[in-house]
Amino acid sequence: AKTNGRGRAEMFDADLRAELAARAQLEADIQLGLTQDQFELHYQPVMDVATGRLRGYEALIRWRHPERGMVPPDAFLPTAEQSTLICAIGRWTLNHATRQLVAWTEQDPAGHADATMAVNISGRHLATRSLIDEVRQALTDSGLTPKRLILEITETVLMEEPAADAHLRALRQIGVTVSLDDFGTGYTSIGQLQKLQVDTLKIDQSFLHSPDPGTAALVQLMITAAHAFGLDVVAEGVENQEQLDRLAAIGCESAQGYYLGRPAPAPNVTAETGPHAAA
Ligand code: C2E
Ligand code: CA
Ligand code: CA
Ligand code: CA
């Protein structure tokens, strides 16, 4: 048993060392990627359900790795979140996304007059007081009107980061819009919604994709409650016309999903001719 135990300990040790080395390597690669401009943003349109018009975009990060090709966010964000690298990524994203929306607005003022840009903010970044200055700086540098910037945060962050509430309050004071991402996957009850520092609710795509007939009633309930508390609703993961029709019938104002437009790199053209042209 003794040798066995030691064997296990050694194996664990080797595994752990390999994992730590892999993580350190990935962190160094991300750092290098930031300085070498290897990251890029893809933009997915958010559409008005009733009119089919463009409401805005969500910026989704991609890593164009010189050897590994296009790396999806799930493959590097969890590691970035274990250090302050996620804050550097957040700053980079805020700066690029706000500038992009202003550029599109200048190219096509009519199509983008009130269009919004949603940026995902991680819990670790929201926990830092400096995020407030960084957001202010990105708005000043780009010239974007505060309310056109949407910060997306997940429910778990609101529950787990003690400073989240105060920081969101300060951000909303600046005039920025706050959106609760992946709603329904965490532990926020509908009743808690009215106390949270959020303006918009994003219903997680799992609700649209569930085969359970009871789910439709749940979505209806979430939308009714959100509206009662003065919140806007965005449904995520719309993949067909039937889902879109159902959302229209229950009064969901905005939607996002592959059926309406896939995330795509910034086209250097106007909204009328681009891949996300309003229907
Ligand atoms: P999310 O914020 O929930 O973003 C929505 C994800 O759903 C995106 O995946 C998007 O490509 C995907 N999606 C959109 N429409 C559909 C659809 O109709 N069907 C299906 N099946 N999927 C759809 P993506 O781009 O891989 O991003 C994954 C997650 O990574 C995001 O989830 C977000 O949590 C995180 N993320 C992405 N970019 C950033 C960023 O710049 N900063 C931070 N902190 N997190 C980011
Ligand atoms: Ca999001
Ligand atoms: Ca989401
Ligand atoms: Ca998600």
From TrEMBL:
- Interval of the full protein contained in this chain: 471 to 749 of 751
Q: Where is the EAL domain?
A: 23-277
Source superkingdom: Bacteria
Q: Which protein are we looking at?
A: Diguanylate cyclase (GGDEF)-like protein
Query: For this UniProt entry, which residues form the secretion signal?
Result: none
Source species of the chain: Kineosporia mesophila
Q: Which UniProt keywords apply?
A: Membrane, Transmembrane, Transmembrane helix
